[in-house]
Description:
The chain folds into two domains: 7-80 and 172-279 and 444-505, FAD/NAD(P)-binding domain, CATH 3.50.50.60; 283-441, Alpha-Beta Complex (Flavocytochrome C3, Chain A, domain 1). The chain is α+β, with helices and mostly antiparallel strands. The two termini are 40 Å apart. The protein has helices spanning 52-61, 92-96, 103-113, 120-139, 171-186, 239-245, 262-268, 332-340, 353-358, 367-372, 386-393, 397-413, 477-481, 491-505, and strands spanning 7-10, 13-16, 40-46, 66-70, 86-87, 163-164, 190-194, 197-203, 209-216, 219-230, 274-275, 283-288, 297-299, 315-317, 346-352, 380-383, 433-441, 448-449, 456-458, 464-470. Helix 1 runs parallel beside helix 5 (171-186), helix 1 packs parallel to helix 14 and helix 3 packs across helix 4. Strand 8 and strand 9 form a beta hairpin.
Amino acid sequence: xxxxxFTDLKDGRRTAWLLTAGPGLASVKPATTGGGMGDVxxxxxxxxxxxxxxxxxxxxxxxxxxxxxxxxxxxxGTLYWSSGQIAGAGTRLQKQHGxxxxxxxxxxxxxxIAHGSIDPVVLKLTTEHAGPTIDWLMDLGxxxxxxxxxxxxxxxxxxxxxxxxxxxxxxxxxNVLKPVHDKLVARGKIDLRLQHRMTGLMTDTSxxxxxxxAATPSGEQEFRGKNVVLASGGYxxxxxxxxxxxxxxxxxxxxxxxxxxxxxxxxxxxxxxxxSGDKFLCTFAGTRDNPKDPTSGTFLLLSPGGQSSxxxxxxxxxxxxxxxxxxxxxxxxxxxxxxLSRKGMAMHVVFDHGIMQNASPIMAEPxxxxxxxxGRNPNFVKAKTIAELARKLGVPAxxxxxxxxxxxxxxxxxVDRKWNKAFLIRRIDKAPFYAIKAMGITVVSPAGxxxxxxxxxxxxxxxxxxxxxxxxxxxxxxxTSGDSFVGGLSLTPALTFGRLLGEHxxxx
Length: 508
């Protein structure tokens, strides 16, 4: 599913529209503006996505006077982009399947997968409250996909079946949260302002946060509040900020275009701690639709098993023209770390005309559209010979010829002694020859705000910044999942922390 935007100027107002496909999408709605300039709100929520929606719902149910600012023209945020994987221990769903589990086991299992790299405060808070969050979603009507919970699917496996999702990815979760949120907005319990992008935080002379500034359709405005919660998402759609916070990793992102790091930028100006940008693991693998745009990432279907269930017919070579991994290794973690170790996190996917004609599609698009990319996009290379292919890729021709020759011998012998590739269905020997310039792709942002166990944003002094809280991807994916992908530990903490803040952590 892709977001595409254009602007239309009507009556002097900017209106954004969505062009996309897929089930469960919200209708287009212009922003609302005006009113409340002199009010002091109990809670100002920045963002109306996976953390902001449960937060606003629960705080409104407690009677808070809530202002919710959302930069997009609709609520939902990254729920339109996420695969919707969640995980929790001790859920009713587990009990229905006779699965014994506990928050302590979930904590140990997650740290095992992440090699002990997850923030212990954040993980403990997540695992202790994730189960009740999933139960709450099911009370609202969320239906887990048939066959779930499982131990593992898209990532390294848990040792216990606690991992689940809905049939419409994260839209399944949005579809149960949005009706509740809509009713509270309609009843005036939540003052929702769409197309309001936070531009800064306001403080008093003691340094306590007292409100926010926001760019709105009618100009910049100030809003005052007793509590401000940053639920504004990550920064993988902001190439400049990515370079600052994650300088060692080249960016190729597929994410919500509103993931611009507004919350991080504003909190850093107040001295908030932003860390963990060095804890990164790429997703395997993708390429840039526009080679000059690092935010134009698109996925290649190169992971055997899982939801794509595609065999790997091709070979992967690095900048030296040599293979560097078992292309169809069963461990996703192995494949991702192998790619991460390459120069520029880059590789070339090499194949020939026979594979082009016979393999399952390598991209989620019609075959004709895929073939048309070659010769039109610099990342999709076509050549008459292996030597010409090497030249176009910028790799040593002798190395690439030797690599292909050795691979063809492995296909003939039906055993790949060097790299143990299991699927040896076709030689690479029929012109024309093809290659895709691929690289590690990201859907998340590793760096984020440090918080304490009450989700208060922590300053460089080690003390919390008064009245400032954070939840969701603004905390950083690395804080909730370490330097790995742990099933459900991006979306689940966001939903859980939003619920906890609204339910009892915030005071007014």
